[in-house]
Design a protein that fits this description.
This protein is an alpha+beta fold and 645 residues long.
Length: 645
């Protein structure tokens, strides 16, 4: 098979390692010679069975050279045998099947199979993006995209704004500069080009403000507030590369000021740092790194700074952004975080995603920018700004898509509005209305205006929940749990309001909070209903208690009630029977007027003086308070046993 070219971009996603390995195949693999590694692994397994890790290396090699069928077969075989397979390799399994024609059902199969072995955020991200991409017209950007003049036959990538120019990374030859063996190109260097009126970038030249080096310099970013350029470079001491104890050389992030003074910002001989971005509003320095404690390959982190000085340990953006795959190239524009990932639910290798930064600094589900920007190859290094010339937006990104001039090329684009499908975040918590205690494992459904199910979730251990969906003007939330009431409420939200997360805090009572045993029956917990003497008129105090009943029934729509009223023995039996019946009917009428369904009230009875609670019957002298004990109206719950389950 013809040797396929491995892009410099892909190389930068891997560790720069040359440690001594146990086999020749392993050496090839860790030197990125994937075709040679495949041949050698297949030769070695004839003589001796490969280890699990070597089989995974073989699958990774097939994945790198786009032999997705062979990669998927190995990943799937190991998945079935190894119940401890990491989420990073499960993600690669999904990527491989996602690339194959007529194998999309396998993606869903393994997603379902591995649900408990993958982060819940990954499942949610996958569900939303699959829904979006299935209806790609929702994210049609109408973008005008063009290949920039500055591109060469080598790798050109990672554009960054610099005054009226673009800085970028290139592997183009420059004099007698040493060749970097894994790529066959020159060591990476930083160049600049002039932005023309039409957005094209021309006149490429070496960016002279960065100190010279014999090794990699790449992925620059200009901090206008500090007049500093930050960039990635090989860990070196003068003309000598630095290696850790395992023989690994990594990439650091350094800065050069307006006086040409250089200093390292992020440096570790065992960890590589990539794609720095500085947010002037928060003084956070963002970057990608391959720390061992991350979520997968490269993750996106940030550190706090003070005038460019690092003031904190790295903070991982968390599983909403970072996945078992590789995330790189963070860029923030107008409270939106753009970055690239090669996670399985995209179009190709690397795709560009956007996530909205909320007021509480939480991040929305990253949304794929669609095929106006993304292709079936690698698309990354996305930057964007307002275009003062035409009132729209101007931006650039890198891609190795078909039709380019060389390896990775820089593409420009023009848009009329910000890219990315507008979503809406609905989140909150469910607590016990009586105790205020958080209610975990509470089921919630999000419905559209027609009652169709959009999402299903449940509260976490803190009683919290969150939905995120493509923007809807109207939606309904339902929540229920055995032994508790049901919440069912509709909301409307404008697109402007949808910029902020919609907070919905729900209080629900348990059946035992609203029902008690009294008079040898299950009755609603309300204060005693005091009618005026010889009256069946609903007083203000009675109405207050019945309003509580209406709320309870709205939470327990399946509740079946029996309304019964009793009188004292004073007066005739006939009169008392009629009075009690009238009182029960009055209670029913009031409840119906408050929205209680007629189906909820099974029976309405007046017992008169036939069910006295004491000996105060006709002809027996009793004190007034003893007579009053017999005058009562109660609302019984006939199906308590059913509701409590």
């Amino acid at each position: 098979m013809k040797l396929k070219f491995i892009t410099l971009f892909c190389l930068l996603l891997n560790v720069f390692a040359f440690a001594q390995k146990k086999s020749k195949a392993d050496n090839y693999f860790f030197e990125y010679a994937y075709n040679d590694a495949i041949k050698q692994y297949n030769a070695e397994k004839i003589k001796k069975p490969l280890t699990n890790q070597q089989y995974l290396n073989l699958a990774d090699s097939y994945l790198k050279i786009r032999e997705y069928k062979k990669a998927s077969e190995i990943y799937a075989d190991i998945y079935e045998k190894d119940s401890t397979l990491s989420s990073a390799y499960i993600s690669k399994l999904l990527i491989a099947f996602n690339k194959l024609e007529n194998q999309k059902d396998k993606v869903q199969y393994y997603l379902t199979q591995a649900k408990d072995r993958l982060p819940k955020e990954l499942i949610e991200n996958s569900d939303l993006n699959s829904e979006i991409l299935a209806n790609n017209k929702n994210i049609e950007l109408g973008a005008y995209i063009f290949n920039c003049t500055i591109n060469s036959a080598q790798a050109d990538f990672s554009p960054a704004f610099y005054e009226d120019q673009i800085m970028f990374t290139s592997g183009r030859p420059k004099g007698k500069k040493e060749i970097y063996k894994p790529s066959g190109e020159a060591y990476l260097d930083i160049y600049s080009g002039k932005i023309q009126l039409d957005g094209d970038v021309t006149v490429p030249k070496v960016f002279s403000k960065i100190p010279t080096s014999n090794f990699h310099k790449a992925t620059p970013f200009y901090i206008a507030q500090l007049d500093n350029v930050i960039y990635m470079l090989s860990n070196a001491d003068g003309e000598d590369l630095l290696f850790d104890k395992n023989g690994k050389n990594t990439l650091a992030i350094g800065a050069v000021n307006d006086r040409g003074e250089f200093r390292y910002l992020l440096r570790d001989l065992s960890t590589s740092f990539y794609y720095p971005f500085y947010d002037g509003e928060t003084n956070k320095l963002y970057f990608a790194a391959d720390f061992e404690y991350g979520y997968g390959g490269t993750d996106i982190y940030y550190v706090y700074t003070n005038n460019g000085q690092i003031m904190s340990a790295p903070v991982n953006l968390g599983p909403r952004i970072n996945t078992p795959a590789n995330e790189i190239a963070p860029y923030i524009f107008e409270d939106d975080l753009y970055f690239s990932s090669d996670i399985f639910y995209g179009f190709g290798g690397m795709d560009v995603y956007v996530s909205s930064i909320q007021l509480d600094d939480s991040l929305s589900i990253p949304v794929n920018l669609g095929d106006s920007i993304n292709s079936d190859k690698d698309d990354f290094g996305f930057i964007i700004k307002n275009n003062s010339r035409d009132g729209g937006l101007l931006g650039y990104f890198s891609s190795n898509r078909s039709g380019g001039k060389g390896n990775d090329d820089i593409y420009g684009f023009k848009l009329k509005q910000k890219p990315g499908l507008k979503t809406i975040i609905i989140k909150g918590e469910i607590t016990n209305a009586n105790s205020g205690k958080a209610l975990s494992n509470f089921n919630l459904w999000l419905l559209d205006e027609n009652g169709s199910e959009l999402r299903v979730t449940s509260t976490d251990v803190n009683g919290e929940f969150e939905f995120e969906i493509p923007y809807k003007h109207t939606y309904t939330i339902k929540a229920s749990k055995d032994g508790y009431g049901i919440y069912n409420k509709s909301f409307s939200v404008s697109k402007e309001e949808a910029e902020r997360a919609q907070l919905v805090n729900i209080q629900l009572a348990s059946i035992n909070d609203v029902v008690e045993e009294k008079y040898n029956k299950d009755v609603l917990k309300i204060n005693k209903l005091y009618f005026d003497k010889k009256s069946s008129v609903i007083t203000a105090k009675i109405a207050t208690e019945l309003d509580k009943v209406a709320v309870i029934v709205s939470s327990f729509p399946n509740m079946k009630l029996k309304i019964e009223s009793h009188t004292t023995s004073k007066g005739s039996n006939t009169y008392n029977l009629a009075l009690s019946q009238n009182r029960s009917e009055a209670i029913k009428s009031y409840l119906l007027s408050k929205g209680v369904s007629v189906n909820s009230i099974v029976e309405t009875v007046g017992y008169g003086e036939t069910q006295l609670l004491n000996q105060c019957k006709n002809g027996v002298y009793c004190l007034e308070f003893l007579h009053n004990q017999n005058e009562r109206s109660v609302i019984s719950v006939l199906n308590y046993d059913e509701l409590v389950k």
